[in-house]
Fold these 2 entries.
Entry 1:
Amino acid sequence: MEKQFINYSNIFLNHKMLEDTVCDAGIKEHCLLYIYSGQIEFEQDGHKVLLREGECAFIRRDNRIKMNKKSNKKTGVYQSILLRFSRQFLHDFYRKLEPSSIPTEIKRSKASIKKIPIRPDVVSLFESIKPFFESNVEPSEQWLNMKMIEGLYVILNSDKTLYASLFDFTEAWKIDLMGCMQETYMYDLRLEALARYTAR
């Protein structure tokens, strides 16, 4: 029997459901999301991005996004996998990069969600992860780390401007507090969450 929800060391997250769901989520860390089955629609500030089966996207940290997950019409299942990149993991990776390999004079993309073109390296990465969620075998930390690095290269090889997003280790910009409260009043945010989203 397949597991419905698995989290290995806060690195991989697999989610399987049999009904459509709509949720509002605060994105605290950079993520890479891949859809195995069904589809997901992101909405932020009136802008929508749709991911279908076999598609992948980079999601930037420190923002709030509405998500509408829909199951596959034939199988009735939604299934995705998420790689979450902590600041510490990114910092450790960045320190090992050769300075000459880091693009210069690039500007950080303002987009919160960026679709990743489907390439052999994308498909290979996520198809190699899936078997662990369908068995009782737990992957080693070394294997997990290797897959996280592979995921980073999927992002970096997609768009050079994402170097600026991934390796920005400053705190989030201070966002207008009143504006943020007016935009998010319907979400009943805790004080701590409001402080984080406005970098206070």
Entry 2:
Amino acid sequence: MLSIINMPVTSYAANCFLVYDPVSGEAALFDPSVSKDDLDVVLSDRKLTLKYLILTHGHYDHMITVNEIRESYPDALTAISEGDAVCFSDPVRSCAAFFSVPDFRVAPPEMQLRDGDAITLGEEEIKVLATPGHTPGCLCFVFGGNMITGDTIFCGTVGRSDLPAGDPEVLFLSLTKLKSMETDYTLYPGHGENTTLFYEKVHNPYLKLIK
């Protein structure tokens, strides 16, 4: 069974999660905005090997420290969706320009993820679920009774769709997909506190619009 840690973040209140397999010691860092020093401590304390750096989507606030961490952990594979890979080279699409970091760039990813793909940590799998709308390539990641949702859905609200390449109609379809699920996943969103899918089905005003 995979374990998950909510890592301390540097700024912009964007959540960063470390998922790891206690048996093999393999780990994946989702939305790297944690400082390298804090990551070093957690990996060392738990005797973990960083296997992946994974982006739920390509916005700057979710990959602030990706370049620093890639340099320190060159064996870790960086993964993002096909639809958001352009964000690594386009500061407008990544919104880095809006955060006053117009020169921010990331080297091309080693992996481009698609809906239905699986990432392995030891013998455990993390399933890739495409949920576009906030960006064209937004992804959620499902393992056990957990789901990392990025900026697709938060506690009590959903991701905005008015940023570059966002699409409210596409986001509505992604939310419909989530609402149709019959498992009460614990949701780990890109901002704010954790929640559950069944709670959001009842209380989230956007999901309540979906019949």
